[in-house]
């Protein structure tokens, strides 16, 4: 950000300096000319040169200060903007839901003018696996993110255990949910701390247990400092599959009852894939699972499938039912089955 600001200021500053330098040189040259002409005394000519330099340095610092003031102005505006953002927790209460059934009741949502969900109603019973499929851009991620209140619905409501997600404090809502994204964010910190992010108070043995379940204990132990290995710049670089398994270990340690999972679309090597599937199986045991599914195997095993298209749930059911109906689902499966390493996105 600062670099960008510098870039906008530098040309102005340069121009200012060029004009200032140009003017002072002009003053000196003129002084010399008048002196040589005999129209000006040497003392006055020298005085003028000195004065021009004094004026020059003052103007230069004034120019720099004005740039600084503009920078301050922009920064203060930003702070004010953040200050004005409403606090999400204003009306929330700490809630411990009685169950983890998730219900979308006539939910509509738009990004500005762009409507993504149009009066969507659906029920996700607790401790079941729900797969969400549909064309790219259909709103699968948006639907999942609404549960965790990345955004708030424009119409209708989403409830967990019968309580509107907007009536929870953000803490008491998010403690129930673990999200595992395709894009994994790990901190430039030790592997141990990265896993513990899901539950900072967890003792080391718990971290190891979670890592074992997520099939990453072995590769962690093969690193020079084991769990103390620092990830990222200047530390260990991990493969995509390894990062993903660490993020699953994090979710296993958090042990939230609701798991939102964006299944990887990138085809990893078969060994990594098996480890990943094993880690996901451990994570999702006995949980309420919502998956953005891309693999045939996942959708086949799901307790229910929602097909999202054009802002609506167009088909609902199990794989065996949906495959027999003409419709988007059967089309997808038909096309994807032919493709090698098929995915539904
Ligand atoms: P899917 O997960 O099914 O591919 P998404 O939920 O990511 O679909 O996106 C649904 C639609 O909303 C897309 O058209 C996408 O371009 C748009 N969209 C997604 N996120 C944003 C955002 N943060 N701001 C504006 N539009 C968005």
- H/E element string? HHEEEHEEHEHHHHEHEHEEHH
Tell me the CATH architecture of the largest domain: 3-Layer(aba) Sandwich
Number of strands: 10
* Helix percentage: 40-55%
- Taken together, the total number of domains comes to 2
Strand content: 15-25%
What ranges have pLDDT less than 50 throughout 5 or more consecutive residues?
340-345
State Rg.
31 Å
Shape: elongated
User: CATH H level of the largest domain: which superfamily?
Assistant: P-loop containing nucleotide triphosphate hydrolases
Largest sheet: 6 strands, mixed
Walk me through the structure.
This protein has 345 residues and is an alpha/beta fold. It contains twelve helices and ten strands. Helix 1 packs antiparallel against helix 2, helix 6 (204-213) packs across helix 8 (240-254) and helix 8 runs parallel beside helix 9 (270-284). Mean pLDDT is 85; it is low at 340-345. Adenosine-5'-diphosphate binds next to strand 2 and helix 3.
């Amino acid at each position: 950000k600062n670099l960008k600001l510098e870039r906008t200021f530098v040309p102005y500053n340069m121009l200012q300096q060029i004009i200032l330098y140009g003017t002072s040189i002009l003053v000196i040259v003129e002084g010399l000319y008048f002196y040589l002409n005999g129209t000006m005394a040497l003392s006055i000519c020298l005085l003028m040169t000195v004065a021009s330099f004094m004026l020059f340095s003052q103007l230069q610092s004034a120019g720099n200060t004005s740039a600084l003031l503009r920078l301050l102005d922009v920064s203060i505006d930003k702070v004010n903007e953040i200050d004005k953002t409403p606090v999400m927790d204003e009306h929330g209460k700490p809630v411990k839901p009685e169950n983890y059934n998730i219900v979308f009741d006539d939910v509509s949502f738009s990004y500005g003018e762009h409507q993504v969900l149009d009066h969507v109603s659906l029920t996700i019973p607790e401790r079941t696996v729900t797969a969400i499929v549909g064309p790219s851009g259909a709103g699968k991620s948006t639907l999942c993110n609404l549960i965790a209140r990345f955004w708030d619905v424009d119409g209708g409501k989403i409830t967990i255990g019968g309580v509107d997600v907007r009536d929870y404090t953000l803490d008491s809502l998010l403690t129930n949910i673990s999200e595992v994204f395709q894009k994994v964010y790990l901190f430039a910190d030790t592997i141990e701390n990265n896993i513990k992010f899901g539950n900072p108070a967890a003792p080391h043995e718990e971290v190891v247990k979670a890592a074992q379940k997520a099939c990453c204990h072995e590769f962690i132990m093969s690193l020079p400092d084991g769990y103390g290995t620092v990830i990222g710049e200047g530390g260990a670089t991990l493969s995509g599959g390894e990062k993903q398994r660490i993020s699953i270990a994090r979710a296993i340690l958090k042990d939230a009852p609701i798991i939102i999972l964006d299944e990887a679309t990138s085809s990893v090597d078969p060994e990594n894939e098996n480890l990943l599937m094993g880690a996901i199986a451990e994570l999702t045991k006995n949980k309420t699972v919502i998956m953005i599914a891309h693999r045939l195997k996942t959708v086949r095993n799901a307790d229910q499938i929602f097909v999202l298209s054009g802002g609506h749930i167009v088909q609902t059911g199990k794989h065996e039912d949906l495959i027999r109906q003409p419709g988007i689902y059967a089309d997808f499966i038909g096309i994807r089955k032919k493709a090698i390493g098929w995915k539904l996105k």
